[in-house]
Amino acid sequence: xxxxxxxxxxxxxxxxxxxxxxxFPAYPHEHVESAAIFLLGIIGxxxxxxxxxxxxxxxxEKKKYQREASHASRDLVHSxxxxxxxxxxxxxxxxxxxxxxxxxKKVTKKQRHILFNDMLEAITMFARTENATVHxxxxxxxxxxxxxxxxxxxxxxxxxxxLEQKKEAEEYANGCVVSLMQPVAGYRVFLVLDRNNISQExxxxxxxxxxxxxxxxxxxxx
Length: 222
Fold this sequence. Notes:
Layout: H1 2-13, H2 15-18, H3 29-99, H4 109-127, E1 132-138, E2 143-150, H5 159-163, E3 169-172, E4 175-179, E5 187-193, H6 200-221
Antiparallel strand pairs: 1-2, 1-5, 3-4, 4-5
Helix pairs in contact: 1-3, 3-4, 3-6, 4-6
């Protein structure tokens, strides 16, 4: 591009030698030279203008690609983080599943204590909270037979209120309740949390933990 400017500058200096009076006899020589210099100036300005437009477009395209690269990088980091989190969750579920004795064996109090601690740890991970209560409700007497608790929960519900729930995940103003609709040996299990807006995926993980918890609870009573 700089060669164009050099050529235009050189032509401008050579106008007096290139434009001869006999070439344009109908016009004053000074006017012809001025017109030639003006024309060269217009050409130079046009070249400069279009070059600036091209540079500006390249800068905008560069910024666009940088933004797209930044977004892609953040999405990639989020994806790796998500995959890592899911892997940790699956490992926790695997640990719980492997820790539960075979079905024909009774769960001892010691085993139940260890398993329930693992399950509470899993619940706090999936629910992203340090406050949770698990209630095992006797459907016949409509009473809470046993509870597990970690931290404090603002939501207090009776056994009857829990049994009246029609959905597996019921949200309240100050928390939510996740439950299994299917009873086992006359018992149902309910998880009371101090937060709501839990993702559907994490609710599925929580229900998997509750299913194991209910099985352990029932077998520890046999």
